[in-house]
Structure formats: structure tokens, C-alpha cells
Design a protein that fits this description.
The complex is a heterodimer of chains A (427) and B (269). With 427 residues, chain A is mainly alpha-helical. Chain A contains 17 helices and four strands. Chain A is 70% helix and 3% strand. Chain B is 37% helix and 23% strand. Chain B is globular. Chain B starts with 8 loop residues before the first strand and ends with a helix. Classes of the chains: A mainly alpha (427), B alpha/beta (269).
Chain lengths: 427, 269
């Protein structure tokens, strides 16, 4: 610390400017290590919640009783602890192995291969899953995936742009009704329906953005809430257009090149649609975030005046996050309509907007894996544990309160993109 | 009225007035800056200095008056002169006028590197399909701006910590990062709002040398607001003094030091 220029650095982090090597983690103290270890254990326990459904508890639908398999809890908890340790201490392991002390042989695995391995594992699992689990579960998982796509859309405005959007059900309902009506009157199949849903969602996102162009914070939340409610009222009362509260039934499910499929096959087909759209959604979200668009959004969220002074077009920021988010919601709406084969104005209810918002908040605003974990916890878990239906809202509320107190950044916090790594990878 | 006109200014502010309700925060200010000049704007608190900055950089739309900018000189070629009043901040920065803020306004949750990358916003041309498909052109552009950002950060010795979040930086470094971010806009003019406020004497000297160095390297014209008289007198070539929204004196540091109106404004009659 000889450089007088840096004498003020003691105010926050004295070791910040003394190290020569970039990106190496500091040697953690015993206290921080213990803290991180504790966070790993807690997170592993949280991850156990979605696992409850398949592995630990099984619902006997005939006798309506639960079967507990408690030994599995131990195995899976250990598995999750191992996985999280792997991620939490990855940089340390890499650093340790770099300095030649421990784990040198594992260095390659820790640094590079885990991503590819994880991706193969996840995609392989996703492909095999519908063939090994019961038909009923396939439907529920499809439903969860639809909500994950829906929530990824909301993540643009809430997570990236920092706009508290309470009317996200509007483009969702617009996509669902667009497909349902087109299917009813002109027998539109699912695939072109998805495209129509995307376009309609985009338009409705743009409408929300244009109507709220000058609003910020709570005012924006109130107006988006009102807009969502207008959508609900219109759909409930405009009988000649939407068939009112009776809704639209008999919506088409996918075929395989004009071949009629059985009920089970159709469910599996929809599951694959949802999985592939979700993957595309994740890739698009990630790429946009690491581009000039994502940087503009996040800069706007952090400080809109500074962002504007650095050349960010602020109206465009709002328009783009709402439009892209609406696009996701529209597609999710089409999938929802197709998989449930029946929709009514309840798809535009405020409860839907709140549910999808709590997915984003619970999972972690701005974090893509967080949003997916959030939709698993918020959608899949209650569906699986129908026995506890009465306590659903109670548990939810408690969970959100606990989150707000102890982990405001969500279950999986949003991490910064590593530009230097990205750049060096392409070389 | 005081009018001190330079020969061929690149920025010219004429009779600028900014009225908030019944208050004239800036009253008929005329200010001109030539290429490669370092000009200071001083005055007691509430004199309207930052308001003037906000008018020039587009955050406020002035009530009346003209702001013109032409990188090759206002009087040399009127076709290329830009009228700034009424333009939005992102358009102003696109023309080549970047600013920093009095109370540091960084993107706190973003990393140091990302803060600088945002500065390139008005120069980037990558399209939405280009980003989604990760075209070669797009990744080249991305690679280039990351490299340029690191070069800029090198001046401030921030490049080795490019992935630290901006909020974790000490105050002095945050001020420097704001300047780095403004440099990334590739502007010809830099507006610094109290660059050394809150720094101690040593830090002030170092930052002055640093600003002088980057001014040479990037061929910048600088207009700055500052309360540190030592800094202002040693660093600037000309000084404008404001009080109660009006211009009370213009001149070289020596002229300002002995100007009775300035002494009256600062010390009282």
C-alpha cells in the first residue's frame, strides 16, 4: 500500500488493489468459509423441496394417502450438497490447483468440463423423462415448463429492466386467446399458433410499455395492475368475442406431421415443445443479457439518468423489455391453452400475474436458473402435493417472508457475465 | 453583461436561461469554449453551475437560449453545427459530449468492465439478429470494445479488477471509474462535475495529473465545475464565475483571483 493514490481503499476492501493477479479469489477466512458452507447446506435443503415430489413423497391416488421414502432424503441431500459445493467453491478449487497445492489433477474438470457435463446431463434427462414417469406427471411438468417460459419473460422487465410489472398476465391471456380463437374458427395447428402467440404477445407488451412510458416504481406497478385487470374484464364480458366466462373448449393439441396421436403421445409432444421453447428462451435471454441490449437494460435499472447520459435510449429500453417479455408470455399462453385444451378469463386474472412475479422474486431477479428453480417450487410443488392443498397459500406467504428477511436476492442470485472469459473462449 | 468570446469555439452557449417556476436558476449565460481548452466553472453553492451542465448535456431543456456544438469550430462551417437545446441526453452524448456527475452515479451492481462497456452504447451498431445468432461481425465488435475498455481502465489502474462490482470500489476509485466510463463514449468534450470533491490533497494531485494525461492522449476539451480553488487555479486556462444564476466574471486564473466581483461573491461585501 505504498501508492498514496490508493490510501483510501482501506475504507472498503484493503486487499482489493494490492494483488497483482486478476480474478483470483482472496484467501477466505474461517468465518466466511463457514458462512458459505452454511449457505451450501441451506440451499441443498431448499433444493430438496422440489425433490420431495418424485423421490420422497409419492401420492397414492387410489387411496389418497402419502407414501414417504425417508431414506431417499439423505441420499439426495448429500447429492445436492456435493453439487453445490462444487459450484460454491469452484474458483477456490481452481485457484488452489493453480498454485499447485491440491487438486491439480481435477483442475480441468473443475474449470471447464462441469458445464458441458451438466448440460448433457440435463438435456439427456429432459429427453428421457416423459418416457419413464407417469402420464399425469408429464402434464404437470409441461405446465411447470410453461410457467418457466412465462416467468423468463417477466424476468426481462422485473429482473433486467427493474420495472415492477404486475400485468404480465395480459400478454399471456392474449396469446392463449389468440390461439384458441384462431384454432376454433380456422383450425390453426399448434406450431403456427406459437408464432401468432409470439406476435400478439409482442404487440400487447408494446401496448403496456407505451401506456406507461413516463411511469416508474410504484406508479408503474399500479398502472400495469390496472391494465391486467382491464384485460380480465374485457375477456369476461365480451361474450361475442371470447365467449365470456364460459371460456373456449376443445383447443387443438399437437399432431406429428398430420398423424393423429393418442392422449399420452400428445402430452409428450407438448412436453417436447415446451422443453425446446424453454431452451431457446434461455439461450436468447442469456445472449441478449451479454450484449449491448442487456447492458443498456441493466444500466437503466441501476441509474436511469446516468444510463441516459451514457447513450442509452430510455424509451427504447422500456419498449424492448416489455415487448420481448410479452413475446415469451404470448408463447407460454399458446402452450398453456393447447395443453389444458380449455381456457376461460381466469388466465388473465391478477393471481396469475402475482404467481409469476413470485416465481421471479423467489428464484432470483435476473437469474435464469433462479427463475426455473422458482417455477419448479411455485408450480410443480403444489401440484404434486395436492394433499396439503389447504395450507398452500400459508406456506407460500411464509416462504416469501423468510426470503425477504434472509435472502433478498432470491434462491439463486444473479451473477455477472464474465466478458473476459467469453472473449478468450472465442479466440 | 460579460461576454468573453474566444476565436473559434467548438461549444457556444448564448443567452441560456433555465427557469424553474419563479426561479431563474440560470440567467442569460453566455459561454464559449475553444478546442483543447480546459475551462472551469466556479461559484458559490446554488449558483446554477450544475443546472447549466444539465442544460448542455440534455437532462434539462433550457427555457430559452442557444447551445451549439461543432467539433471543427462554430464559425468555420455552419452546416455541421449541431443545435443541442431540446436534444435528449443520449443524443447529446452521441454527438461527442460526455459528462460525469457530482454525486457519483455508477451502475453499482454492474462490474467495472460493464460500467465502461455501457459507455460505448451510442457507438455500437450490432443488431438484434446479430446478437441472437452471435454472428462473427458481432463478436468482433464485442471483442474490440472489451479490449478498448481494458485499455481505458489501464489508465486508472482498474483493469486488473475488471470483474469487481462497482459498488465495492472505494470512493476515489469510483470517481475515476466515472471518468473512464465517460471516456468510453469517445467524446471530444468532457464535462466534469466536481471531479475532486471528497478527495484529499494527494489524491487531488494524482487525479489532476491523470486528467491532464488522458486529455493529452484523447485530445479532449474539458469543462469542469469545482470548488477546490487550488485545483481550479492550477489546472484551468480560463475560468467562468457564476453567482445567483448569472455570470459575474470571465478570465484567466490570475484575472479571476484579483476580480473584485468574484471576491465579493465568495467573501461578501
Amino acid at each position: 500500500m505504498n501508492d498514496p493514490n490508493l490510501s483510501h481503499s482501506s475504507r472498503s476492501d484493503s486487499s482489493l488493489f494490492t494483488k497483482k493477479e486478476p480474478h483470483l479469489p482472496r484467501q477466505p477466512s474461517a468465518k466466511t468459509l463457514a458462512k458459505r458452507l452454511a449457505s451450501v447446506l441451506i440451499n441443498a435443503s431448499l433444493l430438496l423441496l422440489p425433490a420431495l415430489t418424485f423421490i420422497i413423497v409419492r401420492v397414492n391416488t387410489v387411496q389418497n394417502t402419502l407414501e414417504w421414502r425417508l431414506l431417499n432424503v439423505v441420499w439426495f441431500w448429500l447429492l445436492f450438497v456435493f453439487f453445490l459445493l462444487f459450484f460454491e467453491f469452484k474458483p477456490h478449487m481452481a485457484a488452489l490447483s493453480k498454485s499447485g497445492r491440491v487438486l491439480r489433477r481435477l483442475r480441468g474438470v473443475y474449470q471447464y468440463r462441469h458445464n458441458i457435463l451438466l448440460q448433457i446431463f440435463l438435456i439427456g434427462g429432459a429427453v428421457l423423462l416423459p418416457f419413464i414417469i407417469p402420464f399425469y406427471y408429464v402434464k404437470i411438468i409441461t405446465f411447470t415448463l410453461v410457467y418457466a417460459i412465462f416467468a423468463l419473460g417477466l424476468n426481462y422487465s422485473v429482473g433486467y429492466g427493474g420495472f415492477l410489472n404486475l400485468g404480465h398476465a395480459m400478454p399471456f391471456a392474449a396469446g392463449a386467446y389468440c390461439f384458441a380463437l384462431l384454432n376454433k374458427y380456422s383450425a390453426l395447428p399448434v406450431l403456427p399458433g406459437l408464432l401468432c402467440g409470439a406476435i400478439v404477445g409482442l404487440i400487447f407488451g408494446a401496448i403496456v410499455a407505451l401506456l406507461t412510458l413516463r411511469l416508474r416504481g410504484d406508479y408503474l406497478a399500479i398502472v400495469t395492475l390496472a391494465l391486467g385487470e382491464i384485460g380480465n374484464i374485457v375477456l369476461s364480458n365480451w361474450d361475442s368475442f371470447s365467449n365470456g366466462v364460459r371460456g373456449i373448449a376443445g383447443i387443438a393439441q399437437p399432431k406429428l406431421f398430420f398423424i393423429e396421436l393418442t392422449l399420452q403421445q400428445r402430452a409428450i409432444m407438448l412436453y417436447f415443445y415446451a422443453v425446446s421453447i424453454l431452451i431457446v428462451g434461455i439461450v436468447v435471454s442469456h445472449r441478449l443479457l451479454c450484449s449491448r441490449f442487456g447492458r443498456a437494460w441493466e444500466a437503466y435499472r441501476e441509474d436511469h439518468i446516468a444510463a441516459e447520459s451514457m447513450g442509452v435510449h430510455v424509451s427504447w429500453v422500456r419498449l424492448s423489455v416489455f415487448m420481448i417479455g410479452g413475446c415469451y408470455a404470448g408463447v407460454a399462453g399458446v402452450l398453456y391453452a393447447s395443453s389444458s385444451a380449455f381456457i376461460n378469463p381466469s388466465v388473465s386474472q391478477i393471481l396469475i400475474s402475482i404467481t409469476v412475479l413470485s416465481i421471479v422474486v423467489l428464484g432470483g431477479m435476473g437469474s435464469i436458473p433462479g427463475v426455473i428453480l422458482g417455477s419448479i417450487i411455485v408450480i410443480l410443488l403444489p401440484e404434486m402435493l395436492r394433499v396439503f392443498e389447504l395450507y398452500r397459500m400459508l406456506i407460500f406467504g411464509a416462504l416469501l417472508v423468510i426470503m425477504m428477511r434472509y435472502r433478498t436476492q432470491g434462491l439463486i442470485a444473479h451473477t455477472r457475465p464474465q466478458y473476459l472469459k467469453r472473449i478468450s473462449k472465442t479466440e | 453583461m460579460i461576454r468573453a468570446l474566444v476565436k473559434n469555439p467548438i461549444l457556444s452557449v448564448r443567452d441560456l436561461t433555465m427557469r424553474f417556476g419563479g426561479l431563474d436558476a440560470v440567467k442569460k449565460i453566455t459561454l464559449e469554449i475553444a478546442e483543447d481548452e480546459i475551462v472551469s466553472l466556479i461559484g458559490p453553492n446554488g449558483a446554477g453551475k450544475t443546472t447549466l451542465f444539465n442544460c448542455i448535456t440534455g437532462i434539462y431543456t433550457p427555457t430559452s437560449g442557444i447551445i451549439e456544438y461543432n467539433p471543427s469550430g462554430i464559425y468555420s462551417n455552419s452546416d455541421t453545427t449541431h443545435h443541442i437545446n431540446g436534444k435528449k441526453p443520449h443524443e447529446v452524448v452521441g454527438l461527442g459530449l460526455a459528462r460525469t456527475f457530482q454525486n457519483v452515479r455508477l451502475f453499482k451492481e454492474l462490474t467495472i468492465l460493464e460500467n465502461v462497456l455501457v459507455g460505448f452504447q451510442s457507438r455500437l451498431r450490432m443488431s438484434l439478429p446479430g446478437v441472437l445468432l452471435q454472428t462473427h461481425k458481432n463478436s468482433l465488435e464485442e471483442k474490440e470494445i472489451v479490449a478498448t475498455s481494458l485499455e481505458i481502465l489501464k489508465y486508472f489502474k482498474l483493469d486488473t479488477h475488471a470483474h469487481t462490482r462497482a459498488k465495492n470500489l472505494p470512493y476515489g476509485k469510483q470517481k475515476e471509474l466515472e471518468i473512464a466510463r465517460a471516456l468510453a463514449t469517445k467524446s471530444k468534450m468532457l464535462f466534469l462535475d466536481e471531479p475532486v470533491a471528497g478527495l484529499n490533497t494527494q489524491e487531488t494531485d494524482l487525479l489532476r495529473n491523470l486528467i491532464a494525461k488522458i486529455r493529452e492522449e484523447f485530445q479532449l476539451t474539458i469543462l469542469l465545475i469545482e470548488h477546490d480553488m487550488n485545483f481550479v487555479m492550477n489546472f484551468s486556462q480560463r475560468i467562468y464565475v457564476m453567482d445567483y444564476g448569472e455570470l459575474i466574471a470571465v478570465g484567466t486564473p490570475d484575472e479571476i483571483r484579483s476580480n473584485p466581483a468574484v471576491i465579493a461573491a465568495y467573501l461578501g461585501e
